[in-house]
Amino acid sequence: MQMLALYSIKGGVGKTASAVNLAAQASLSGRRVLLWDLDPQAATTFYLRNKPRIRGGGVEKLVKGKATLEKTIRGTELDHLDLLPASPEARDMDMLLEGRKASRLRKMLKPVSNDYDLVILDCPPGLSTLSEQVFSSVDALLVPVVPTTLSMRTLTQLQQHLDGEHITTPLWPFFTLVDRRRNLHQESMTGFHEQWPARLSANIPYASAVEQMGVHQAPLTQFAPRTAAAVAYRNLWEEIAGRL
Ligand SMILES: Nc1ncnc2c1ncn2[C@@H]1O[C@H](COP(=O)(O)OP(=O)(O)O)[C@@H](O)[C@H]1O
Ligand SMILES: [Mg+2]
């Protein structure tokens, strides 16, 4: 069971859109995928037409490893794709994880580790006890970056934070919300590869289809599979799959 996280210190950079679309692509490739919505705002849960609710004992039991995961995990309308929904009480998650050993998130999934090939985490923004657990649990951090100065600055801050804590989890940044007509975007993207050799080269364009995911409550594969954004997510997934 491999684990990836969509993570950034910043909000509004496309973590959730990317988590849902990459999970859909991965499930289409035949992998058994679990998408875990760690953000109490529950956008991923909403996109997959579920309700934010942790059945089988709530967040506390989940963290303690005593939840009935068969009840907590929900199916979705896509084959091979399941969802571990967010919960309004997910705000408590940070507190409950306090003082826990590293890789707790991975250990929480142990009872179902044979049922999934890939787990994708959709994370809330910010550095917290939860994010430290994410760093220690996953095989790589997928970091969406908008090609603007501030967004690229937070990527550097994240790398500095990981280096300072001696965390070796690889960072795989990629560009989202790319508008090639904007000079600033063009300029920000030049030289990125030299600075971030591990970056993923597929760029996700700014696209109204992505915004419409909220209307359709579905990943792009389900309602706009031939749009540029859907193709970009497929290319991004294939690049990621090649590294796993
Ligand atoms: N490629 C894109 N093109 C256009 N809008 C996007 C794109 N990616 C995300 N968005 C929109 O930007 C907003 C923030 O995206 P979201 O994925 O929720 O970010 P995060 O999870 O990092 O906070 C949402 O309204 C979403 O619909
Ligand atoms: Mg989000």
From TrEMBL:
Species annotation: Kushneria avicenniae
Stated name of the protein: Cellulose biosynthesis protein BcsQ
CDD domains found in the cross-reference section: ParAB_family
Record InterPro entries: AAA_dom, DNA_Partitioning_ATPase, P-loop_NTPase
Boundaries of every AAA domain copy: 1-162
Any Pfam family: AAA_31
Gene3D superfamilies from the UniProt entry: P-loop containing nucleotide triphosphate hydrolases
Organism superkingdom: Bacteria
